[in-house]
Amino acid sequence: EGEMPLVHERFVSAEQLGAALRRRRRELGYTQQTAADLCNHSVRVISEIERGRPTAGIGVILDYALTLGVDMELSVRGRSS
After folding, report:
1. Around Cβ 78, how many Cβ atoms within 10 Å?
2. Of 16, 26, 63, 64, which has the fewest beta carbons less than 10 angstroms from its beta carbon?
């Protein structure tokens, strides 16, 4: 409650990305268990992603983001599109 909805953000750390994915999960009304079931990963893995732990692989993080309806985008600093 009181959290801003996830729309478009820039991340420079795993902790920031994890916090944003946690906000999105909560926005959808999912528990960690529900999210884990939907993306076929364990609650432990979901928790580690949301806490910004370096133990989760990029593929797992992408699975989780896609499950939450979050697109991941890559951009190079200092370049305009």
Report:
1. 5
2. 16
CB 41 within 8 A of CB 50: no
**Based on the number of CB atoms within 10 Å of its own CB, is 73 exposed (0-12), middle (13-18) or buried (19 or more)?**
exposed
Given 3-state DSSP classes, what are the helix, strand and coil percentages for the chain, each rounded to the nearest 5? 50, 0, 50
For residue 6, count other CB atoms closer than 10 A to its CB: 19
